[in-house]
Amino acid sequence: MKDITVTRQVFALDELSPAARNVAIEKLRNDNYENIPSDMISEGLCGKLVALITGDDRGDVSAKNLEKLTGLTLEWSLSYCQGDGVAIYGEIYNDYATQLTWGNAVWAKLTRNSHGYHYSHRNCFTVELFDGDGDTIDDNGVMANELGDMCTTLERYGYAEIEHYTSEPYVIELLNNNDTPRIFNADGTLAPSQFWAAL
Known about the structure:
Blueprint: H1 18-35, H2 38-54, H3 63-70, E1 72-77, E2 85-93, E3 107-112, E4 125-130, E5 136-137, H4 142-165, H5 168-176
Antiparallel strand pairs: 1-2, 2-3, 3-4, 4-5
Helix pairs in contact: 2-3, 2-4
């Protein structure tokens, strides 16, 4: 048996040609997109929903705490496809959701409709309003429109977060904080990890 030593030249991002650098950046952005933890986006969306309906910005909120605080659950799909967006379900009361227009209603029920079994967006739920006796109140769709607009705001927020986590400055910052930033072949593709090296 004979041991063979293999050497390989690996490069840091700033050592690549402009064309190879573009290949490397695109690879890093795609990898980040594939590996964004869904909880990170979900908690941002839940926190934003709490802020929108209460006026109280608590930062990130877990799905469990959203339901505990508001009685609502949030579903989302943000993969740049038709039918994507954010939908809200559950029951909510006027003493907590102070940023909504309640009129004479005391609580609202947000129920999944036929669209909600296939998609997640502002048209996937139906809003019913009730007074303190449980009688239905008709507000001519005012609250449904407000909640729909909030879903659109949440969708934009979610996409902005995804864009941030996959932006060139963000992936470069991650790479620069890596102990082994010399990870690329000369053409900008990733070298096998056993050849990665520190600067």
